[in-house]
Design a protein that fits this description.
Layout (H helix, E strand, L loop, with lengths): L1 H19 L17 H5 L34 E3 L2 E8 L35 E4 L16 E10 L5 E7 L5 E6 L2 E7 L5 E4 L7 E10 L24 E7 L2 E9 L5 E9 L7 E5 L4 E5 L6 E7 L5 E2 L2 E2 L2 E7 L2 E7 L4 E4 L2 E4 L2 E2 L2 E6 L13 H13 L4 E4 L6 H10 L2 E5 L11 H18 L5 E8 L5 H17 L4 E7 L5 H14 L14 E5 L3 H4 L2 E5 L6 H11 L6 H11 L3 E5 L5 E5 L18 H17 L3 E4 L7 E2 L12 E2 L12 H14 L2
Parallel strand pairs: 23-24, 23-32, 24-25, 25-26, 26-27, 27-29, 28-30, 29-31, 31-32
Antiparallel strand pairs: 1-10, 2-3, 2-4, 4-9, 5-8, 5-10, 6-7, 6-9, 11-12, 12-15, 13-14, 13-18, 16-17, 18-19, 20-21, 21-22, 33-34
Helix pairs in contact: 3-4, 5-6, 7-9, 7-10, 9-10, 11-12
The structure holds (2S,3S,4S,5R)-3,4,5-trihydroxy-6-oxo-oxane-2-carboxylic acid.
């Protein structure tokens, strides 16, 4: 009975395939309508009745991605931003069914009387850049495939090349230009570009992008993150026009001794050996550069520019010319290094008064993508009297990095190597390396970027160590002018804190009464994760006052001591100033996260968690504690704004928002905002 059903299905599939040509499979592969023999009916693959009716076609990408160009905003470009039409393809059949002919990417329009099972509706649009979740309520929770489509008029001038540039889109993208699959990219937060010179039509061009917001367990990141996996073409799409030989990339940095501008230029095109000129008029620099046959030239020009720093973010107009091409932008010059536990900015120790942020707008729901979003975030950092921003947990858009550069805000930027990814998988490592290269190519000339962060809260396994060591080596080879860091997970090293609180509570309850009479010794949390050897600066996420309490209370109850969590919290806040935090490495330490959740507007007593009061009290206790830990060179509490997080299931309070923001989802300030801003004002005045 079972076999009969299968055979029928197969037969119908074959007939359909024959009638419509089975998409774009070569005819030789087309199945024939022959009843299977007994042997083939028993073949293992035919017993699998979960096989989809229409199998996937083999899809060939016509081009490798072109090497990424830097400073895309400094080039002549046609913006393809705007309203794109879209099709939601939940079952991911847009490539497969014969009734779609070659698939949605081929972007066909049915003639009258023709059956074609897809068509874009011009009335249904999504804004690009932008995530789909915040634009169409029915897509709020949607994770999967959406096909985007736009059209543009363009005439490529003689002697020019054109590149399609995507600032970013989450997660996997297949790009079809005029019906041809010309590019494929994986990764939600870094740019890519494709040389489309040969694929453009004079006049009208059709662009379709298949965006799949789902990532695989071997991807970077995976699906399991404490943030909403916003899908879509979340950043700008540009058609960039350049001469046949053009300045593709360059690195222009201050030498570590602060006595020269040094770096390199990379030309791309048939005349890559033609040389270039570096110009920084205000410094009197006009330096001819000899490029080799591969288009590369290194340079070092003595100079003593005014230095870029928070409070005086001086930048110089830098340009590079080669043949017909000229590209330029403002660049700041500063040095960054470590000496023992100090971070030295321009040779002077600096303390980082920071805050962490996700790439969520404080002006509108959803992902931040434009200069206004960036300015609003920088505005809040300034109100906090901060000088530093942690861009968590993935590369943010380029406007954000440029706004920080202009405003004089130091940056930590990071790769979405988050929690436990496939550390033993070579493809995963290759993916992380590629994403890192894309980010570095985009941001290497921003003085604001002082840290490349490798990862956030990863398990201390050997596979993790190997992975992050290899990633660190890759990052240093690509750019050795920044410090490497990573945020370590703060549960390790906390046993002493748990024991201390437990003992104090036991003493309070007169179980071991004599302890209360003596002054307790301060507890030192010592960080010894081997990743500390790899990085230049150690980041540490610690949640005293928030996450530790339930664990300590449970451990005490297991030992027969009746305590409730509120008591543990109270004791924790009261004791925190007795704690110290240090590392076993002679390196600077940054508290990359601490925080507590609060629903804006909710008030309550000292241990009323979720209240603004409790959050403010955690901040006050943390700041007192961290002040006393001598190794600490900066902090970036978690987090600037409440952010969307499907992890957060406490519906009346969290409602799928992580509530640790200093401002609410609509930008209303909570009490803790004031606590931090006063603390930073006082610190800045020292
Ligand atoms: C962390 C993670 C961050 C979370 C945060 C939290 O340690 O690094 O991604 O969102 O804690 O709120 O739990």
């Amino acid at each position: 009975m079972h076999a009969v059903t299968l055979n029928r299905v197969r037969l119908v599939a074959m007939l359909v395939a024959l009638t419509w040509g089975w998409g774009c499979r070569p005819p030789a592969e087309a199945p024939t309508a022959v009843e299977p023999t007994e042997t083939s009916a028993a073949a293992p693959e035919e017993e699998d009745d979960s096989t989809p009716f229409f199998g996937p076609r083999e899809i060939v990408v016509l081009e490798e991605l072109a090497p990424l160009m830097t400073n895309v905003f400094g080039r002549k470009a046609l913006s393809l931003d705007g309203d794109w039409t879209y099709i939601v393809d939940q079952l991911q059949i847009g490539d497969a069914s014969p009734l779609l002919r070659g698939g949605v990417g081929e972007d066909e329009v049915a003639k009258p009387g023709e059956l074609l099972e897809y068509a874009f509706d011009p009335a249904r649009t999504l804004r690009v850049p932008g995530d789909w979740n915040s634009q169409d309520p029915s897509l709020f929770w949607y994770r999967g495939v959406v096909w985007y489509r736009t059209e543009f008029e363009y005439q490529l001038p003689e002697g020019k090349r054109a590149f399609l540039y995507f600032g970013g889109g989450n997660f996997a993208k297949d790009v079809y230009l005029n019906g041809k699959l010309i590019a494929r990219h994986r990764g939600g937060f870094t740019p890519f570009n494709s040389d489309v010179t040969e694929y453009l039509e004079p006049g009208l061009n059709r662009l379709v992008v298949k965006v799949n917001s789902l990532s695989e367990p071997t991807d970077v990141p995976t699906e399991y993150n404490d943030w909403l996996n916003y899908g879509g073409l979340t950043r700008e799409v540009l058609l960039v026009e350049v001469p046949r030989t053009f300045v593709r990339e360059y690195s222009v940095q201050l030498s570590p001794e602060r006595d020269a501008i040094e770096g390199w230029v990379q030309l791309d095109g048939p005349d890559a050996g033609q040389g270039a000129t570096l110009r920084i008029e205000e410094l009197g620099i006009e330096e001819p550069l000899d490029t080799d046959d591969d288009g590369r030239a290194n340079f070092r020009v003595p100079a003593r520019p005014e230095l870029w720093a928070p409070g005086s973010p001086t930048r110089y107009a830098v340009s590079i010319e080669s043949g017909e091409d000229r590209v330029g932008e403002p660049i700041g010059f500063r040095s960054i290094e470590t000496r023992g536990e100090d971070i030295l900015l321009n040779g002077e120790p600096v303390f980082l008064r920071g805050i962490s942020t996700h790439e969520e707008s404080v002006l509108h729901p959803g992902r931040a993508y434009g200069p206004e979003d960036a300015a609003a975030i920088i505005g809040l950092v300034e109100e906090l009297n901060g000088n530093y921003l942690r861009l968590a947990h993935y590369p943010h858009n380029e406007h954000m990095v440029r706004a920080a550069d202009e405003a004089g805000v130091l940056l930590w930027v990071e790769m979405p190597v988050y929690h436990n990814i496939s550390f033993s998988n070579e493809d995963t490592l290759a993916q992380a390396k590629r994403q890192y290269s894309e980010m570095i190519t985009r941001d290497r000339n921003r003085a604001a970027v002082i840290f490349w962060s490798l990862a956030n809260e990863t398990p201390g396994t050997r596979a993790r160590n190997r992975f992050l060591d290899a990633l660190a080596a890759h990052v240093r080879a690509e750019d050795d002018t920044r410090l490497i860091t990573a945020a370590l997970i703060g549960f390790e090293g906390m046993e002493e804190v748990g024991k201390y609180i437990g003992t104090q509570l036991a003493a309070e309850k007169s179980i071991i009464a004599d302890l209360l009479t003596s002054d307790p010794d301060p507890v030192t949390i010592v960080i010894d994760d081997p990743l500390g050897e790899t990085v230049d600066v150690i980041g540490y996420n610690e949640y005293l006052g928030w996450y530790m309490a339930p664990f300590i209370a449970a451990a005490m109850r297991e030992q027969g001591l009746e305590v409730d969590e509120a008591e543990v919290r109270e004791r924790m806040l009261a004791s925190m100033s007795l704690f110290r935090i240090a590392t076993k490495f002679d390196k600077p330490l940054i508290i990359s996260e601490f925080g507590a959740g609060a629903r804006q507007g909710r008030r309550g007593g000292a241990v009323a968690i979720w209240s603004e009061d409790y959050q403010a009290r955690v901040y006050a206790s943390q700041l007192e504690f961290l002040e006393k830990s001598e190794s600490i060179r900066g902090i970036s509490p978690w987090i600037l704004k409440d952010f969307r997080a499907p992890y957060r299931l406490n519906v009346p309070v969290q409602d799928y928002w992580n509530r640790k923001g200093l401002v609410s989802e609509t930008g209303k300030k909570k009490l803790a905002f004031g606590v931090l801003s006063e603390h930073y004002a006082e610190r800045a005045a020292r």
